[in-house]
Amino acid sequence: MNRAPLKRSRILHMALMAASDPSGEAQASEEKPFLLRALQIALVVSLYWVTSISMVFLNKYLLDSPSLQLDTPIFVTFYQCLVTTLLCKGLSTLAACCPGYVDFPTLHLDLRVARSILPLSVVFVGMITFNNLCLKYVGVAFYNVGRSLTTVFNVLLSYLLLKQTTSFYALLTCGIIIGGFWLGVDQEGAEGTLSWVGTLFGVLASLCVSLNAIYTKKVLPVVDGSIWRLTFYNNANACVLFLPLLLLLGELQALRSFTHLGSAHFWGMMTLGGLFGFAIGYVTGVQIKFTSPLTHNVSGTAKACAQTVLAVLYYEETKSLLWWTSNMMVLGGSSAYTWVRGWEMKKVQEEPSPKEDEKSLLGV
Asked: Any stretches that span the bilayer, and where are they (predicted)?
């Protein structure tokens, strides 16, 4: 019997909640030949890598290209949110017109729901804005190190907000990440390429990523657990929140004097950036579906390593041994944290509950 295909909203929910279904994976392995499954996994992982790396390099071009000379990072971010909102609404309309061919939830803008999601949207705006500002002021090669404190903030906020403690081994991996971050900052400074502003934006982006995960779990019930509905409302709210920022920071006036404002190439690159932003959520969920949350994290770490190497080669940079060591510490610490948390969760699942212990003692 073939396994029923998962809806995309459910796939992305699995990605967000880091939920896996070992029995489902075992069943899929039994049903499909090994070579076919290996080919599918290779294609899905490649799609994730290409989408993610392309999005970073494209955003760097839009934010800090000498040929464009466009100093409007808020507008770039606003436009990408607008593209995502329109894509969600377009796919919803297409699904209504072609039921059975396009699987997408029905989307209607409800102001009460939008108001309920507004606190998350504020954090979401901070997350994507600080991400792009970090990328504007630091090189692509240093981008991963600059935003590497997300895991550390996850541990800190879990304790402060959720009162969840963390094991010694997990804290040890966080120490490795912090050490790698500071070594990376030190080496960027030694090479004369350090941007303190970009580094600060990277730290703020890491904090917002952690807050975004916490608030997302709280507001998911408002949209019936649908990631696509949440994506639609989040980006629609973000478009509204960005408007006063565009006015206050004078970016609309800067756009008027932008020489490439009427260029089809410029708007094509801007729209492509929005498409990549929309696509990364989908390919992340697909990768988790065909592998597992743990494998996805390992793939993300390997992708970050490949992205760093590509950036160094593409921009023809020369880095010291200690600079590369800082990257390996950050990537290694992140991978170790993922492995430790996975091992701890597996250990908890295997431990019998107190009620089961009582039943075994009574011979039931």
From this structure: 38-62, 74-96, 116-134, 141-162, 168-185, 197-215, 235-252, 264-284
Residue 257 located in a structural domain: yes
Q: Are 236 and 84 in contact (CB under 8 A)?
A: no
CB-CB neighbours of 271 under 10 Å = 15
pTM of the model: 0.82
Q: Is residue 23 part of a domain?
A: no
Distance CA 305, CA 352 (A): 39
User: Quick check: is 294 in a domain?
Assistant: yes
Residue 171, in any domain of the structure: yes
Which residue range is the domain that position 238 belongs to? Answer: 38-348
How far does CA 2 lie from the centroid of its chain?
31
- The answer to whether the CB of 264 falls within 8 A of the CB of 270 is no
pLDDT tens-digit profile, the chain (364 residues)? 444 444 444 444 444 444 344 444 444 444 568 888 889 888 999 999 999 999 999 999 999 998 888 999 999 999 999 999 999 999 999 988 888 787 888 898 899 999 999 999 999 999 999 999 999 999 999 999 999 999 999 899 988 888 888 899 999 999 999 999 999 999 999 999 999 999 999 999 999 999 988 888 888 899 988 888 999 999 999 999 999 999 999 999 999 989 999 999 999 999 999 999 899 888 887 887 788 776 777 788 889 999 999 999 999 999 999 999 999 999 999 989 988 988 888 887 776 655 544 444 444 4
Tell me the CA distances in angstroms from 249 to 134, 244, 256, 258, one per residue in order. 17, 8, 14, 16
How far is it, in rounded angstroms, from Cα 273 to Cα 92?
A: 21
Domain count along the chain: 1
